[in-house]
Amino acid sequence: MTEKDFLPQPYTKVVNKGSITWQAPSNIALVKYWGKKEHQIPANPSVSFTLNNCKTTTTLNYEKKKSPSQDFDFELYFEGKIKEDFKPKITTFFKRIEHYCPFLKEYHLTIKTENSFPHSSGIASSASGMSALALCVMSLEKELDPGMAEEFFNRKASFLARLGSGSACRSIKGKIVVWGKHDGIASSSDLFGVEYPGKVHEIFHNYQDTILLVDKGTKQVSSSVGHNLMHGHPFAEARFKQAHKNLEALTNVFQTGDLDDFMELVESEALTLHSMMMSSRPYFILMKPNTLEIINKIWEYRERTGMPICFTLDAGANVHVLYPEKHSEIILEFIKNELVAYCENEQYLCDRIGDGARRIEN
Ligand code: DP6
């Protein structure tokens, strides 16, 4: 598929007024997206576990105007309160998708959004937020074009979400989602995320992710700035190649369920992501001393007990602790006794792999 496939056909219906709600999850990348080209095209393929509990719920109320306006006409409520400072991000998103959703300026929109996780948790809400909004926009488009097939709906929702925030395209459908063209995965695309099509060993079906909130403050360097620093980065080409190799290796692991290989790949990806940050110009460090304390404790515990517990990191100081459900009781005990002390206000979130976004009936 190409970008052109997402341009709409003439709409068959007129819709005046309505309300749509979607709940979309966050996701945690195993092979990381870090570096992008123009139009939100990733420099390398990535793959993520969809989360279950960390999610955004967004309601889009729409009302057709007498004539389309010059600018996008919307109000934004975050957790019940008007949020002016989120508006520029949404305006940028609408501008990027306008070509593919030309009906947007015909409506007055009210967007009401809330997260299941605390606002200042350091958990990026762009993935769940942008995917929930993209799905609402798609549901409105489907009202205008009721014949739209479900597969196309999901693909276009992911395509639009990507234009809002790259990783958001992996938060539409499926437990494991690949984004970015990879030779070994025929259905993969740079334009949208697809549910990982290969065989997945049952050990991964209910994988757990406990998120340790090490630092709840705002990041000193945003992801977009970080992505841009991959342009002209001395190790960029090697890194992009490595991501292809790691994704290929991970597809074998998904099939065999070999947790030693899984843990090695996932931790190496996390540390490589942060080493890209540390070796860019300007360089920066998003890990905190407690991030390292936790990593060392996890390694020590794994060495001592043989438990299949590993970590990954996103673009921040928080640590995602990954482990199979069958060991969750004992591992959660370890987390509570030995790791939670390193979290800000001892806060952590228990999550696990989930199925993707779902529509909520209004
Ligand atoms: C480290 O998707 O937040 O979490 O496309 O600029 O919005 P933008 O970036 P974003 O980057 C996420 C980077 C990451 C790795 C990943 O999720 O793959």
Stretches with pLDDT under 50, minimum 5 residues: none
CA distance, first residue to last residue: 33 Å
Shape, principal axes of CA atoms: globular
Let me know the largest β-sheet: 8 strands, mixed
Q: Radius of gyration over alpha carbons?
A: 20 Å
What structural class do the secondary elements suggest?
Answer: alpha+beta
Order of helices and strands: EEEEEEHEHHEEEHHHHEEHEE
Short description:
This protein is α+β, with helices and mostly antiparallel strands and 362 residues long. It has 8 helices and 14 strands. The radius of gyration is 20 Å and the shape is globular.
Write structural notes for this entry.
- With 362 residues, this protein is an alpha+beta fold.
- Helices cover 33% and strands 23% of the residues.
- The chain has helices spanning 87-97, 126-144, 150-164, 223-228, 236-256, 259-278, 289-305, 328-339, and strands at 17-31, 36-37, 41-42, 46-64, 73-78, 81-82, 107-115, 176-179, 193-195, 208-212, 310-313, 319-323, 348-352, 358-360.
- The strands form 3 sheets. Strands 1, 4, 5, 6, 7, 8, 9 and 14 form an 8-stranded mixed β-sheet that branches. The protein has a 4-stranded antiparallel β-sheet with strand order 11-12-10-13. A two-stranded antiparallel ribbon has the order 2-3.
- A hairpin with a 3-residue loop joins strand 2 and strand 3.
- It starts with 16 loop residues before the first strand and ends with a strand.
- The model has no long low-confidence stretch (mean pLDDT 96).
- Residues 29, 32-34, 40, 46, 124, 126, 165-167, 223-224, 227, 273, 314-315 line the site of ligand DP6.
- Ligand DP6 binds at residues 29, 32-34, 40, 46, 124, 126, 165-167, 223-224, 227, 273, 314-315.
